[in-house]
Amino acid sequence: MSNVDVYWYEIRNSLYMNVCNRCTLRCQFCPKTQGCNQVHQYDLSLGKQPSANEVIESLPDLLGYKEVVFCGYGEPTLRLKVLVEIARYCKKFGIKTRLNTDGLGNLVHKRDIVPELAEVIDSVSISLNAQNAELYGKHCKPQLKSAYYGVHQFIRRAVNYFNEVRVTAIEGLDGVDINECKEIAEDYGAIFVPRYLDKVG
Ligand code: SF4
């Protein structure tokens, strides 16, 4: 295991940003919940939460990449200021930006952060994970009250602001009905994308 924090990593032609290792969910299907912070060959454990400058200074030449994705084993919107600053820097190079989020940013910050994100983020992928609050609670173990409804509200806001909104749920989770999740996503005007356990990127 490396002692050096990984602030970014590559999957195919995209650059993934690892700016936060905290989240307010304890998803039962997440490798982090089982104590594993590994994605492909990268150990995404962070010794400390990096500043925007530390991440920006560590970046490779951005011109060769198709997209910058804010992802990692943590919720990027918990570090909203850092995320926005890095994304703004990346946009100067004309590179596309995407945020993978649990959709709980508005609940955490107790305000609507979607317009602020939309200034620097082109597309979002939001984890719905279940067709109802009960199953969401079972699989994601949210620490915040009304989390499932928070995700719905975030999707509703997001479709008005981003060029592309994807909503995801994982195939094969006990009781999760992928078709119902798809219906929910499409009713909001989002694109539904099924995901598969242990597959990142
Ligand atoms: S929100 Fe993401 S990082 Fe956090 S436990 Fe769930 S899947 Fe893992």
What secondary-structure arrangement, pairings included, does this model have?
Elements: E1 8-11, E2 14-17, E3 38-39, E4 42-43, H1 52-58, E5 67-70, H2 80-91, E6 96-101, H3 105-109, H4 114-118, E7 123-127, H5 133-140, H6 147-158, E8 164-170, H7 178-187, E9 191-195
Parallel strand pairs: 2-5, 5-6, 6-7, 7-8, 8-9
Antiparallel strand pairs: 1-2, 3-4
Helix pairs in contact: 1-2
Bound molecules: iron/sulfur cluster
Per the CATH scheme, the topology name is TIM Barrel
**CATH architecture descriptor text:** Alpha-Beta Barrel
Report how far apart the termini are: 22 Å
Number of strands: 9
Oligomeric grouping of the chains: single chain
Q: What is the mean predicted local confidence, pLDDT?
A: 93
Low-confidence stretches are none
Rg computed from alpha carbons, rounded to a whole number of angstroms = 16 Å
Strand coverage percent: 15-25%
Structure annotation, total helices: 7
